[in-house]
Q: What sequence folds into this?
């Protein structure tokens, strides 16, 4: 007897409109077109099934206005490396 197929979890993308400045970076960097911008420039989830959980929209948003749940490990690693790096000439905390 064949095993029942596991349903693929659909990633959840949260957009906090109050912090969004409608720059469109998140939609521009989304590799699959899962998010798009409306006429006013605010992003919205166009097709959640297309979301790869790559986390690029969250990483690229300059205003922390977008959050992706169930991000892949690679995205977590990239973000952690961003958090560890400090801009050139700026001492890291504790230095
Ligand atoms: S996590 Fe990746 S695929 Fe999903 S909406 Fe963001 S940029 Fe697009
Ligand atoms: S990158 Fe951030 S601020 Fe820019 S449109 Fe997307 S959610 Fe809004």
A:
């Amino acid at each position: 007897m064949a095993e029942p197929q596991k349903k693929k979890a659909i990633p959840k993308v949260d957009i906090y409109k109050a912090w969004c400045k409608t720059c469109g970076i998140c939609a521009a960097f989304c590799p699959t077109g899962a998010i798009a911008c409306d006429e006013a420039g605010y992003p919205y989830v166009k097709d959640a099934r297309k979301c790869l959980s790559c986390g690029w929209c969250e990483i690229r948003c300059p205003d922390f206005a977008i959050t992706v749940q169930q991000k892949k490990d690679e995205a977590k690693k990239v973000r952690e490396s961003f958090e560890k790096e400090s801009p050139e000439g700026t001492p890291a905390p504790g230095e």
Notes: The domain at 13-77 is CATH 3.30.70.20 (Alpha-Beta Plaits). Helices lie at 25-29, 56-60, 73-84. The two ends are 62 Å apart (CA to CA). Strands lie at 13-15, 35-37, 43-45, 66-68.
